Amino acid sequence: MSAVISTPVETSSLRHDWSRAEVEALFELPFTELVFRAAGVHRAYFDPTEVQVSTLLSVKTGGCPEDCGYCPQSSHHPDSVAATKLMDIDAVVEKAKQAKAAGASRFCMGAAWRSPKPRDMPKVAEMIREVKALGLETCATLGMLSEEQAKELKNAGLDYYNHNLDTDPEYYDQIIHTRTVQDRFDTLEHVRDAGLKTCCGGIVGMGETRRQRAGLLVTLANLPAHPDSVPINRLVAVKGTPLANAPALDPFEFVRTIAVARILMPKSMVRLSAGRETMSDELQALCFTAGANSIFHGEKLLTTGNPDTEYDRALFQRLGLRPMSVQETHLNDLPGLTIVGNDGGCGSSGGCGCSGGQTATLTIVNAPAEGGCGGGGGCGCSSGAPAGGVTLADAMAQRQPEDGCGCGCSGC
């Protein structure tokens, strides 16, 4: 296996000051130009042939007191899903084992609560510990969290917490009335403060305008930190919900949304979430081209349908994609290991990305276990000594010093 070479992009280019006008202008670009730009950003930060695969399990279904207009689990809607109790831990662990065997690197547990009750937290914490012990990343979506609850989940070993904004704050009151958008911001703050990674996105196709889709993405991109994962859901119009008859979103508009999300949040995983069951293979391929690099797989997402594992495996094979491993999903977590450089080593003609004492910035993708960072001459450069047998794990653990690349090679 070899390193993937990409054009260097400075991490300082990450922005949190996007204006709605700027984002609307991106949406207005010719389709091919927008997708081209998004694909370039994607390649600068990720291997475009890799897709992170998650599995989502509803560990407590139905009976939710919220009135979200899209959700069949809301007790406010006449045909809502029957309420269940919190699943047994052993049953959750068995589902997690099945997910791992099918290729998932992350296991997400969802509960239809406004917020977890104190009596439920010990059981949820044990679920997290047991799933984590399988070697999977863990994620939970349990509703609103207090500061203490976020810390409890972190202490149990939780990696990610999902709490979506759902839609543009300007359109929010058209969809939900029992929880304010500020409630959502507060939970996200508690999650970040606890040291958890954030999974935060929204739903498109709920009758919002393009301007409001831009507003959702602006709000996500201007959070204090970009979400680590950005799920983009295409509305699944469920009978009995207020949005059952919402008009379907144009497929090209959905791809535009994916592309703009990738440009605004270049280091985030952009996930194709709900709605894939009704997407053609061609539409999904366009989404991957435009920067989507994560999916949920399994036959069901909470209560709605989803392509089964065999379908996804066949699609990946046709497109030349492969599931990302747990280790690979952590590569971009390290600030000193972000981007694979070009022919001058790990980032510039000065070797290893360092020029005049600058810090090197790398992303090592599929590097060999021995021989340095993946290049024939150490650190990807054609000259210079081998990198002293630095393994991928060692390289991931290092932070580059100010006066060199830190990869262990003497030729840079």
Strand content: 5-15%
SSE sequence, one letter per element: HHEHEHEHEHEEHEHEHEEEHEHH
What top-tier CATH class of the largest domain fits best? Answer: Alpha Beta
CATH topology of the largest domain: TIM Barrel
Helix and strand composition category: alpha/beta
How far is the N terminus from the C terminus? 22 Å
* Overall tally of structural domains: 2
Shape: globular
CATH architecture of the largest domain: Alpha-Beta Barrel
> What is the makeup of the main sheet?
10 strands, parallel
Rounded radius of gyration (Å): 22 Å
CATH-assigned homologous superfamily of the largest domain: Aldolase class I
Total beta strand runs: 12
Helix content: 25-40%
Task: List unreliable stretches of 5+ residues.
Answer: 1-12, 334-412
Number of H- or I-type helical stretches:
12
Return the average pLDDT rounded to an integer: 79
Keywords:
single chain, 412 residues, alpha/beta, TIM Barrel, 2 domains, ten-stranded parallel beta sheet, two-stranded antiparallel sheet, 12 helices, 12 strands, 31% helix, disordered N terminus
